[in-house]
Amino acid sequence: MLVRPGAAGGIEVFLLRRSARSTFVPDAYVFPGGTVEANDYDAAADRTVAGVAAQFRAAVPHELPTDCSPVGEDDATALVRAALRELHEEAGVRLHDAGALSLFSHWITPPSEPRRYDTHFFIASAPLDQAARADAVETHDGVWISPQRALERSRDGALYLVYPTIKHLERLSPFATVDEAIAFARRKPILTIMPSDSPANGFTMPAALENRW
């Protein structure tokens, strides 16, 4: 999740519209992201990447059990490298080092879904010397928008958002500054969230977890 100060106060987040040809949630507005590739497991020493990888501290809440294994050191390091690479490929933003990333959350698609994803969300402040943009292949229509406005447009049917994106925008909405949002990410618990049910019935999360994850 790439964030910056809002022009009228608060924060803004960068969203991209997925291609209409995408096999998964076509036309949905999402955060920049992608999948881990083989070269993300490069064994070259990188202390900054290793430092961010050490943030992988997810605990599985008993309210939402999961069938996935904990993240090991090699996988954590590859995930950090993938996050840096995908941010540049999808949004044209190159962070100066991995230390600019902070792990925010860990979400897993329920087993009832035919296409499952094991996703780690990071948050980072947008560099002042770079402009975010869609790659015009996998994603289009990059937009900076406040979390509150994005949620309003989603409720009005003007912006197609999927459940995890909505929940993250809700989580970001209270913050008045980018520094507050990132400081929160660095101290918050990381819970592995695997919502129950399916999109046909609507994903659900226990009320006890709404302000904990």
Task: Walk me through this protein's architecture.
The protein is an alpha/beta fold and 213 residues long. It has one domain (2-209): Nucleoside Triphosphate Pyrophosphohydrolase. Helix content is 26%, strand content 18%. It contains five helices and seven strands, in the order βββααβββαααβ. The chain has helices spanning 47-53, 73-91, 147-155, 163-172, 178-187, and strands at 2-5, 11-18, 29-30, 102-108, 118-125, 139-145, 192-193. Strands 1, 2, 3, 4, 5, 6 and 7 form a seven-stranded mixed sheet that branches. Strand 1 (2-5) and strand 2 (11-18) form a beta hairpin. Helix 3 crosses helix 4.
Provide a short characterization of the protein structure:
With 213 residues, the chain is α/β, with parallel strands linked by helices.
| Total individual domains | 1
The helical percent reads: 25-40%
Q: Can you count the helices?
A: 5
CATH class: Alpha Beta
* Cα-atom radius of gyration: 16 Å
**Beta-strand residue fraction:** 15-25%
**C-alpha geometry:** globular
Main sheet, how many strands, which sense, barrel? 7 strands, mixed
Supply the CATH superfamily name: Nucleoside Triphosphate Pyrophosphohydrolase
Kindly report how far apart the N and C termini lie.
Answer: 16 Å
Give the uncertain stretches in residue-range form.
Answer: none
Which second-level CATH architecture applies? Alpha-Beta Complex
